[in-house]
Every structure is written in structure tokens, then in C-alpha cells.
Amino acid sequence: MFDFPQFIKKNLHIIIAVFIGLFIALTVIFYEKSLFDENQMIGKFSIARLLCDGFFVSSVFLLSVGGMSAVLEHGGFDAIRYATARLVDRIKHPNPKDRDYESYYDYVKEKHSKKTIKFLYLLVIGAIFLAISIVLVFFA
Length: 140
Prior knowledge:
Helix content is 75%, strand content 0%. By secondary structure, it is mainly α. Helix 2 (12-35) crosses helix 3 (43-73).
């Protein structure tokens, strides 16, 4: 038997990402619609153009967040995070005896042993929104 509450709980991050993408798309659509006079926008072509623009902007946002999450997951920002943590530690503890000296290798090893970030769903949802945008280009 299908357990709907368990399904929602398990896939809540995907549902939230879809709603954020749709919210961004609707925000772009309403913003563009308010910029132009109704006389300039005629028929189904204007609606397709608005939908295309909305889905494209939301796809760029989702793909960017997914891409940055992938870079973060694979250690692209480890050096920056390590240097920032050391700087904050130096500011908090000016006395060298109180500081926690952890090597960069130990820091990276500890960071990558923890729970991983899920980012693939953001890339998939962003790619679907981009595909919708590309299809709508032919109707705009």
C-alpha cells in the first residue's frame, strides 16, 4: 500500500526545490507582464515567451545552486573554508597556546568523512525547467 505521508517526508527536498523553481518562474512572469503594456503582447506567442523566460531564469538558478553544491561536495572550497576557519580561530584566541592547530590534510579528511550533500536533484530539476524553456522558445 502506498504511504503518502512517508513519500512526502522522504521527498520533501525535491518538492521544495520544484516549488522554489515555480515561484521564481511565476515571479519573472508577473514582473515581465507588469513591464509591458497589454497592447504590445498579443495572443499565445506572448504567453509562451513569458513562460519561456520564467522557466529559463528558474532553471539557471537551480542549475547554479546544484553546480555550486557539487563543487562544494567535491572539495572545491576546502582551502577557502580552512583559511577562514583558521583566521577566525586566530581572532578568537590571540594567544598561540590556546589555538587548535589542525593541518589542512586533517581538516579535509574530517570534512569529507561527514554526511554528503545531495545535489543531483537540483541539477535534474534545473535541466527539466531548461528543457521546458527550450521547447517554449519554438512557440514564442
